[in-house]
Amino acid sequence: MIQVGDTIPHSTLYEYSEVEGEGCSIGPNAVDVAKAAAGKTIAIFALPGAFTPTCSAKHVPGYVEHASAFAAAGVDEIWCLSVNDAFVMGAWARDQKTGGKVRMLADGSADFAQATGLTLDLTARGLGLRSNRYSMLVKDGKVTSLNVEGPGKFEVSDAATLLAQARA
């Protein structure tokens, strides 16, 4: 499992864009994790799935609500990762009104989740391999804080916890 001090894995995530701009076309666009994180402070939170109860009611809304506080604490971007495709993440972004606040990034094949060792096997529940629920602060590609939830928990990966770590 990835640890504080480790470099985030080289991987490609996908983001659905509603409008063209800055080299992004409408639709799914590849995001090279290493390039996107270079020279930036990124607040990353990951969760098992889009549109799931805890994720939609608590996890994403907390980061949307605190987006300006994260910026004031020196965080350049907030990323939400989930093992869903870019179209689902785009629809969820519209539903959660994340535009300009949280980048909704798809890890459709769970490549990033597997590379970090932060997977959650929900095959028995019909959901396959997913991402564990966690948050991390990444500075120039290096993990500086990591908060991994226990099974079925939502106690340490919330926006308030990571925001306090960003401010420290």
Question: Strand percentage, roughly?
Answer: 25-35%
Let me know the average pLDDT.
93
Cα radius of gyration in angstroms: 14 Å
Proper CATH architecture: 3-Layer(aba) Sandwich
CATH superfamily: Glutaredoxin
State the helicity in percent bands.
25-40%
Structural class by helix and strand composition: alpha+beta
**Overall number of structural domains:** 1
Note the gap between the termini: 24 Å
The geometry reads as globular
- Kindly identify the CATH topology: Glutaredoxin
> What is the C-level CATH assignment?
Alpha Beta
> Unreliable runs, pLDDT <50, ≥5 residues?
none
Largest sheet: 7 strands, mixed
Order of helices and strands: EEHEHHEHEHEEEEH
Kindly state the number of beta strands: 9
Number of helices: 6
Biggest sheet, strands in spatial order?
2-1-5-4-3-8-9
